[in-house]
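User: Fold this; tokens only.

Assistant: Input:
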Amino acid sequence: MRMGQQPKNTIAIFCETRAEWMITAQSCFRRNFPLVTFYATLGEDAVAFGLNECEVTHLVTSVVLLETKLKSILPQIPKLRHIIYVDNKSISTAGYPETVQIHSMQYIKELGAKPENCEQIVRPIPSDLAVIMYTSGSTGRPKGVIIIHSNLISGMTGQCERIPDLGPKDTYIAYLPLAHVLELTAEISCVTYGCKIGYSSPQTLSDQSTKIKKGSKGDCSELRPTLMAAVPEIMDRINKNVMSKVQEMNCVQRTLFKLAYDYKLEQIKQGYDAPLCNLLFKKVRALLGGNVRMMLSGGAPLSPATQRFMNICFCCPVGQGYGLTETCGAGTITEVADYSTGRVGAPLICCEVKLRDWVEGGYTKLDKPHPRGEILIGGPNVALGYYRNESSNSGDFFLDENGQRWFCTGDVGEMHPDGCLQIVDRKKDLVKLQAGEYVSLGKVESALKNCALIDNICAYANSDQNYVISFVVPNQKKLTALANQKSIKGTWEEICTHPFMEVEVLREIKEVATSIKLQRFEIPVKVHLSPEPWTPETGLVTDAFKLKRKELKNHYLHDIERMYGRK
């Protein structure tokens, strides 16, 4: 408060996942300073837009982000007065606007410890604003979701009820973006229940991670966590890396692994475990420290194949959850004893879920064998709306006759007889082809990620065309081996742009698509191979690794025109 910060005035945080992020958040919650959050990978223009929209005067960040992203846009943020950097070092303030004061977090701690600055704490009430959480902008300009304290508490109450025996014996490894509602609520829950938290990053998670020196241990090996949250993209990578190593084993080892895998798969389907087989998976479990007792997947649908792989090789339940920033990450989570795949569980105790007919897409409550429709989530965990965005609020949020708030998710679900939900489509992913067939791009992508040659895929279709095309990030190891086999030489970029390699990837796509019974019009007819992986830093996927379709379309516009024969 010595620096002019008052209760109910926003304070922004633009920082990587680290202990100082959570310390800042807890301090703000305690003193009723609404927190404005931004992904560390968000572009400069999006950050400037959010800071100006919320009229932020105080900002917490790291030295790296301050110097690489913030410095250039500070003149565009006229109301910003104080920047606090979390790193324990000194920096030069040369080149920064005179209107902005820059402080270290250590200085702020020392300032707050002085008796003359110890003012009475103004605590929040349940209806006070807690967070304005800016989304990663998968559909354009980021929107700030308005979350009050009672929303957060409601959502976390529902989530924690599905995690048995949560307590001080648990260790949670934190590496997902704290500006994502899944990670934020997971960590606050850990603090509430007395769990230990170890901070990591996707680049240092395992022994094989990109920023771990060969021969050194990754963070999981050192921390040996018992709980872990992950997005499907991370689990898919682990799956492909392990199965790639299995292919390199000798014949005896490979046969033993396959026998153990198949046997345990049958046991799990019947509700049993296979303790003797688990001994063979000890080395695989060690990739995540060997101690994980439960994993929770969220952010996007997890493929049944990857879920089964994690169940079998890491010898622990993998809970699938479904929720959105607008519902504080809460919606549904599978029960620990539920080993079915492809479903996201039953509604949590904090909310209700119902399906609304979407006739245009062909989904209604009268569908057989189970009712289907757009998923609506209602309850005290539903956020108040989008900050200064009345047009979206009126379309996405509504109050029912009982005064309960509901959010229209845009996702299409199928409700099973036992009350569990399955995500089957997304309204924005549906494209009507020239001949009148509807194609679900998300369904096509989810199915084709099973191709060994594919690391990531984006399906694309135009309503004025009669076929689907795709952009693919190929698996470098597999595609290079195939190129060597076919005597194709060159750099990685040259291999990806070689016409023969496009043909080979397309052939495998068709084989996989046919085996899982995709419709003829759903199978991509042409493909473009991208030598560059899609990461949040490239701006082509969100921090939860969801595809940014608009950005991908713009990035590959030339290739779209080529594949549709316009050039």
